[in-house]
Amino acid sequence: MLAMDYRGPRRVRAAQKPMPEIKHPQDAIVRVTRACICGSDLHLYNGNVPDTRVGTTFGHEFTGIVEEVGPDVTKVKVGDHVLVPFNVACGECHFCKQGMFGNCHESNTQASAVGGIFGYSHTAGGYNGGQAEYARVPYANVGPTVIPAGMDPDDAVLLTDVVPTGYQAAEMAGIQPGDTVVVFGAGPIGIMAARCAWLFGAGRVIVIDQVDYRLEFARNYAKCEAYNFNEMADPVVFIKKTTDFMGADVCIDAVGAEASGNAMQTITGRKLLLQAGSATAIHWAVNSVKKGGVVSIVGVYGPTDNLVPIGNVLNKGLTIRANQTSVKRLLPRLIEHVQNGIINPKALITHRIPLEEVADGYRLFSDKLDNCIKTVLISPSAKI
Ligand SMILES: NC(=O)c1ccc[n+]([C@@H]2O[C@H](COP(=O)([O-])OP(=O)(O)OC[C@H]3O[C@@H](n4cnc5c(N)ncnc54)[C@H](O)[C@@H]3O)[C@@H](O)[C@H]2O)c1
Ligand SMILES: [Zn+2]
Ligand SMILES: [Zn+2]
After folding, report:
1. Beta strands of the chain (E only): which ranges?
2. Residue ranges of the domains in the chain?
3. Which segments constitute the Alcohol dehydrogenase-like C-terminal domain (predicted)?
4. pLDDT 10s digits, 48-59
5. Pocket test for ligand 1, best of 209, 227, 251, 282 (most atoms within 8 A of CB)
6. Per-residue pLDDT tens over the stretch 216-246
7. Cα-to-centroid distance, 287 and ligand 3 (Å)
8. May I ask the CATH class of domain 162-322?
């Protein structure tokens, strides 16, 4: 089958690989119909995630038709069109039972922090992902969810990560009615977080990025204010000034390890890899939120140390909340929101790229070319 193949930092290609096989009675094999490229894939693509092995296939946002199931699979059957949450989760451990599917204790034997994630290096379990014609889906009674009749597969594929992550970013922020919410990052996740902030009762939503077409997209899609940090002397001062010098009620980091905007953080975090990514967005969030405020972090960082202003966190009495999203926990509510037209995920999809051209897809998304917001890869076997 054809699959995306990682060859080293900023080198990916489409290659022929063996078909995945059922390895466990609870496995399913799906024929992939849609697979997105995510900002999280860029951390792998840029070589910033430990133990990203040459030869692996990325892709944690995918939908597909069930082609084969193991003998213990009862919740999905051959022929079902399913959306597959990005978390690989057992459904039965201490953490899954609390709805913390992103922190499953069973699905990732390599680490005790993060659970398994499809196509996300051996640090996240070593599972091949869905940027391929076929994928193996473990714990098939837990994750894969039948796409409701009538739902557009383009909407469904964004329910595997983008919509739940934007929503969880706003949820973790504990937004109170009337709050001023600042979202750092106008990628798909930041845009969705801004949209969802209104659902929690925000009174004002501000998005910060440096890419003008993305800021414009955020303004239109999320009906929010959006500003370019390169046009400000200091984003923290800008936010303080625009909030009567109180600071924002909550700040959301939807940027993560590849943050720009601070030379020292960029050199130590992105070039020399002396810390687990550039902590620029965390700095801005901590320093521009009000005393007693909440910083919600969904931007992804590596497992080791970061230069984070923890003294300011302490002295301002902040609450920091952060996690990988627990997609399955949020799906029932978010499927309803999509069906009722409250969230329109597919509007984020700007590019559809044949899987054969996966290298172009990564470059386009990574370098923010051609007004790209979100890229979907379509495999030759998609047929839908
Ligand atoms: N927690 C989770 O479960 C989860 C799930 C999905 C994605 N993520 C993470 O969310 C983050 C965003 O994902 P995405 O798909 O939107 O990625 P993306 O790369 O498309 O978007 C990131 C945006 O941040 C902007 N940016 C860079 N430096 C900035 C700064 N200092 N301040 C403000 N904006 C800045 C970039 O210009 C870009 O538009 C990534 O770190 C990704 O790994 C987390
Ligand atoms: Zn993702
Ligand atoms: Zn579990």
Report:
1. 2-8, 11-16, 28-37, 62-69, 81-84, 87-88, 116-117, 134-137, 145-146, 180-184, 204-209, 225-228, 248-253, 289-297, 319-322, 349-354, 374-378
2. 2-161+326-378, 162-322
3. 188-266
4. 898 999 999 999
5. 209
6. 999 999 999 999 999 999 999 999 999 999 9
7. 35
8. alpha beta
